[in-house]
Design brief:
mainly alpha; 73% helix
């Protein structure tokens, strides 16, 4: 399939502009520049990566940041962490790089998000309720949980691009862990959407 690089660049810029429009009222002096810097770092870090859909990977962190800005109402630090949430896990950028560029708080939240991703492999052997408690206990900053929920919501919105063999497991994990966690955080709309998307993939016949 022929890839239209120029069209993709235009789409990336449009998504970034939409993100800035969603959060600019909450950004204080200098914060817009920091968000732009995080966007540019994420763009560079993920430049050669694509999602299962074939789209540029950078679409994902931008959309996670969009959910954080528009649906959750996070400020600059949360939006920056959303843009950077996969850099340490999936690219050559290190936690020290993030700390040097954005400071201790951002690197701490990104570190928490990286550790949560690493723990997901063990969820099958841990009861869902205990895992939820563990997530809350190990997160020194609530923004770790909020960005993680935004990450899961965007992954669920695009789950149809994943191999069918993985969809049911991811959907079940969402029903058991992330939808109830969203409810516990007081985000009922997010909980409802996570449940709806998960049910669609976990029990498609019943859903339809």
């Amino acid at each position: 399939m022929q890839i239209d690089i120029e069209a993709e660049k235009k789409e990336i810029l449009n998504r970034y502009k939409r993100l800035i429009k969603s959060c600019k009222r909450r950004l204080e002096n200098g914060e817009k520049q920091l968000v732009r810097k995080a966007f540019e770092v994420a763009l560079e870090a993920h430049k050669d990566m694509r999602r299962k859909s074939g789209e540029p990977y950078i679409y994902h962190p931008i959309e996670v940041a969009q959910i954080c800005a528009e649906d959750i109402g996070l400020g600059a630090t949360g939006i920056i962490c959303a843009l950077l949430h996969d850099t340490v896990e999936d690219t050559d950028f290190s936690l020290e790089d993030i700390k040097g560029l954005f400071g201790e708080k951002v690197s701490s939240i990104v570190d928490g998000l990286t550790k949560l991703s690493g723990m997901q492999d063990f969820t099958e052997s841990i009861q869902a309720e205990n895992f939820r408690k563990m997530l809350l206990a190990m997160s020194n900053d609530v923004r770790v949980i909020l960005v993680k929920l935004a990450d899961r919501l965007h992954n669920m919105r695009t789950l149809h691009h994943m191999p069918e063999s993985k969809r049911a497991r991811i959907a079940e994990e969402t029903l058991d862990i992330y939808a109830p966690l969203a409810g516990r955080m007081g985000m009922q709309d997010m909980r409802d959407e996570l449940e709806d998307l998960a049910f669609r993939h976990f029990m498609p016949d019943a859903y339809h």
